[in-house]
Design goal:
about 170 residues; alpha+beta; five-stranded antiparallel β-sheet; four-stranded antiparallel β-sheet
Length: about 170
């Protein structure tokens, strides 16, 4: 092999082949960067399918009356309020209206025994946002994670069994 002569896979690497190899390497790097940028923007690992959220809240016994069926109750204040879900940039995504009638909680709910539990269903929330902003009844807005929004109504209900009233902001 002569001085300054290079071989790639036992093929002499001439100046022309070297330039072509550099061009293909650069093109490959650009293609790889484009694919990486597309994946970063698309984020295929995120679940973007619309989902239904359930928001569970309680009303203390003093602000309720008996419902139409045994074990049910109705709010006497703030009934039928709308819960709105926004994206972080403020775009309205979905809304659901709180029911007028809820479930009277039994003694197994400790501090919340006798309170009225309401489940608000919010359909069609686009997935993949990560963090959302909720607004109940036109009041103050608060951030909530997608994982918390996807939590079932039953799981949220169970939390009230061990919870203390001081841990929650009461719906009025």
């Amino acid at each position: 092999m002569l001085e300054g002569e290079h071989k790639v896979l036992d093929v002499p690497l001439t100046k022309k082949r070297y330039r072509r190899l550099r061009a293909w390497t650069a093109a490959g790097a650009v293609a790889l960067a484009a694919v990486g940028a597309a994946l970063w923007a698309w984020e295929p690992w995120k679940d973007r399918t619309p989902f239904t959220a359930y928001r569970v809240g309680v009303q203390v016994e003093e602000h309720t009356k008996p419902g139409s069926q045994p074990g049910t109750c109705e709010r006497t204040a703030a009934s039928g309020e709308e819960t709105v879900i926004y994206s972080k940039d403020g775009t309205r995504l979905a809304a659901g209206r709180a029911p007028v009638e809820g479930e009277r909680l039994g003694p197994e709910f400790g501090d919340f025994a006798g309170a009225c539990l309401f489940v608000t269903r919010i359909d069609g929330i686009p997935g993949g946002e990560g963090t959302y902003v909720t607004d109940w009844g036109g009041g103050s807005r608060s951030e909530i994670g997608e994982e918390d929004l996807r939590e079932s109504a039953a799981a949220q209900r169970e939390r009230f069994k061990a919870a203390k009233k001081s841990d929650f902001h009461e719906a009025r």
